[in-house]
UniProtKB/TrEMBL annotation:
PROSITE patterns reported for this sequence: PROKAR_LIPOPROTEIN
Protein name, UniProt field: Glycine zipper 2TM domain-containing protein
Domain of life: Bacteria
Organism: Chitiniphilus purpureus
Pfam families to which the protein is assigned, alphabetical: Rick_17kDa_Anti
Keyword Acetylation included in the entry's annotation: no
Length: 70
């Protein structure tokens, strides 16, 4: 249970840091946010597996990028 809180707190800190990226365009912001959310979700779902974290970040980044595509 302790690890879940630590991962959740890390994800929240990362998301808070991303909100300060006002110079980014909307698609870049959504790509970064999707990667952060996907990485956190992958880490939580795989109990901190590096492969799960990186895989989640990759999938999240692609989803974030594609949702704002012209």
């Amino acid at each position: 249970m302790k690890h879940v809180w630590a991962k959740s707190a890390g994800a929240l800190l990362l998301l808070a840091a991303l909100t300060g990226c006002s110079s980014m365009d909307k698609q870049t912001r959504n790509t970064a946010a999707g990667a952060a959310i996907g990485g956190a979700a992958g880490a939580i779902l795989t109990n901190g597996s590096a492969v799960g974290t990186v895989g989640g970040a990759a999938v999240g980044g692609v989803i974030g990028h594609e949702t704002t595509k012209d």
